[in-house]
Write a structure and sequence with these properties.
Blueprint (H helix, E strand, L loop, with lengths): L1 H11 L10 E4 L8 E3 L6 E6 L12 E7 L10 E3 L3 E3 L2 E6 L7 E10 L2 E4 L3 E4 L9 E4 L4 E4 L4 E10 L8 E3 L5 E5 L5 E6 L7 E8 L6 E7 L11 E9 L11 E6 L2 E6 L1 E2 L6 E3 L5 E4 L6 E8 L6 E6 L19 E3 L2 E3 L2 E5 L7 E6 L4 E11 L6 E3 L3 E2 L3 E3 L5 E9 L6 E9 L6 E4 L5 E8 L6 E10 L2 E4 L3 E4 L32 E13 L2 E11 L4 E9 L34 E5 L10 H6 L6 E5 L9 H10 L7 E8 L3 E2 L5 E2 L3 E4 L2 E5 L3 E9 L16 E9 L14 E2 L1 H8 L23
Parallel strand pairs: 1-9, 12-18
Antiparallel strand pairs: 2-3, 3-7, 4-5, 4-8, 6-7, 8-9, 8-10, 11-13, 13-16, 14-17, 15-16, 17-18, 19-31, 19-32, 20-21, 21-24, 22-23, 23-31, 24-30, 25-29, 25-31, 26-27, 26-30, 28-29, 33-35, 34-35, 35-38, 36-37, 36-39, 39-40, 39-41, 42-43, 43-44, 44-47, 45-46, 47-52, 48-49, 50-51, 52-53, 53-54
Length: 757
Amino acid sequence: MKRFFTFCIWAFAVAFVSCKEEGTEQQADWFGEPQVSAVSGTAAEVACLSVFADGVLTPENSGFSYAPLDESGVPGAFTDVRPDLIDGGLIRVRLTGLLPSTDYTVNAFVALGSSRMTSKAVTFTTSDVAPDETVLEIVSLTTLTVDAGGDVCTIAYSVVNPQEGAAVEASCPAEWIDTFDYSIEGEISFLVDGNTGDERSAVVTVAYPGAESRTVTVVQRAGGSVAPPQPDTETVLLVDYESEGLPERYGETSATLDGRRFEVQDVGTSYGSWIQFKKTSGYLANLEDMGPVRRIEVVYESGNANLQLYLGDQVKPHLSGSTQAVPSAADTQIVPQEVGGTYVFDCTAYAYPYFSLVNGDGVSRVKSLKIVCGGNGDSPTPLVKPEFGTPSSSSVTKNGAVVSCSFRYAGSGTVTEAYFAYTSDGATSQRVDVTTAQGAKTAQFSGLRAATRYTFRLCVVVDGALFVSADASFTTLDEQGGIIAGDTKFPGWPELIPEDAAKAGDEYYYAYHICPDFTVNGYKARNYTVCFSATHHCPVWVAAPRHACYEGSASRSDAYAADPDIPANLQYYSKSTDSGCNKGHMLGSAERTKSTAINRQVFYYSNIAPQYSSGFNTGGGGWNTLEDWIDGKVCADTTYLVIGTYFDAFTDGYGKSASPKKISFGGRSDVSCPTMFYIAALRTKKGTTGKSVQNCTADELMCAAFVRAHTNDLKGQAVTSREMMSIADLEKLTGHRFFVNVPNAPKSSYTPSDWGL
């Protein structure tokens, strides 16, 4: 029975919801016996196996609870600690700050809803420490597992009764472990080289004068036999108002900048110490193949970020019978990322050799442009990018936080700057400098606002070129020092979008639909979540897991009805159609055939949007084609989808456009007809890992958005990379935040080939 339950947890855990039973349950079937090791005077390592896996165990709902025992064996106050490591059903933590010569009891726990299941309790005794004895303690895990590609690792330590002038020192005989960095007090960082052979391990010895040495084992996974790719080359062009070739006054010209040919329209340099782009018509475009455009950095004189970047694979005319710059519909628009006053257009996800830097609304005053392109430059320099770890935060208070991230740079360039940039609510970012030595970096943010969400990243400048890590975020405590409620109602559901507190109950209404008759060991599976608009009388987004466990033999119910969890007066009045539209499911009927009751839920009006019947939601229609293609990307691991609508004017990657309008639909005459539909998708790259996406590294995950304008013109259009955008760009477009419960979701980038495009 236990083996069967373990299998069910692996297959269905992503569908769990909070248990409604109360209290704490201790049951041997939930856990193995906790194992205690590496016990010293003030620390111990505890590990425990459980049957929970694949998304059920998270750092928020599991861990260990420990307490000291008095002389009679009665425990004192218990302390909960969150796991340092979750790997399948294994949780592990390093307990620190313990009292010497003291008996302790410890058990593992997992909290699901209002139920808390615990393991058997075990006891251990810390060793004796004399009052004047110097003790070196490892306060992080004593076994570190590293991927084959290598990484920057960190060992955290503390010293009891330190000696004046003494310093910690680490050593390792293995040549593939090197570059020990002691710049941060209490931490030792080091580099682990890439591995192309079998799994290997080595022991790092940490020593401190007068104290017993400690050891940490580093285990590196096996790698492939393929040699790492050789570095490409890049050329950097720096353009400022003194650059030769730019016109003095607004005009049209073919300029040569640093030996490269450009077309210039309505750009001038005689207006001050900046390059001035004329309103709407000013642009700069390259006319020769300079190799892939890697990155363009813009520094504005007056801070007006009006420039837009378009990439293409060929030289295209930029004038259309007037002085208006018109990028081709086939071009790809890149949205910049503001970092410390520099606007970075990151083009590394593409291989396009041509760009147009086009001015938007309002005159742009540009202090400087930096154009980084690949291949065949007069003086090429190695294109070796820094490799970043995953940024994280800790010690968050109402006005401060500690942030950490690592970077590794193997190139021959010079790292001239390293700093953390942070911002809130899209405001201009601030920075905190750190040392330029590669390795783990930590910074203290202060002067923050209470109850505010901050986004941060590690920034590294190499020979004048700026590189940034992935974004991470934290929310400061409120004025009373309390924790702000989680972004989503259920933090274990990877697909959820945070509720909009400003619009909830007024503009947006939310419903969390649970499968009425699909359970695993008493836990009901979730079906889907919907955000419904009172203004548009239409779903804004529907979030749902896709997995084979939701599919069965139930027939299509066609049970169209009002969603019982959303006010009926906001929804359609009937299943009638009009205005050339039919009833378009956000989450499809075929995706929920486990039972008739489950299928009936996807026929709620809250899951239905008007979709054009002749060329969009029909056989071979634009939307049906995309839905069928997404079906082929659903993997053995769970795939998480957000299917959404958009109501402002929109033009997609195929040049198809739609404008806002009200239509008659579902018995109403005030329904907004969506101008665009999208599918945001997240899954593991391999698709067969058996791991929760919440426990995966960024390299193990892929996510992207697939966007199509609501038009009949896309009938028969196969899915291509032209309709893809990053999740970060979709967030900027829609104002929603996607996959916030997956800390390593690679939202800023995507690779079309990962999706077979």
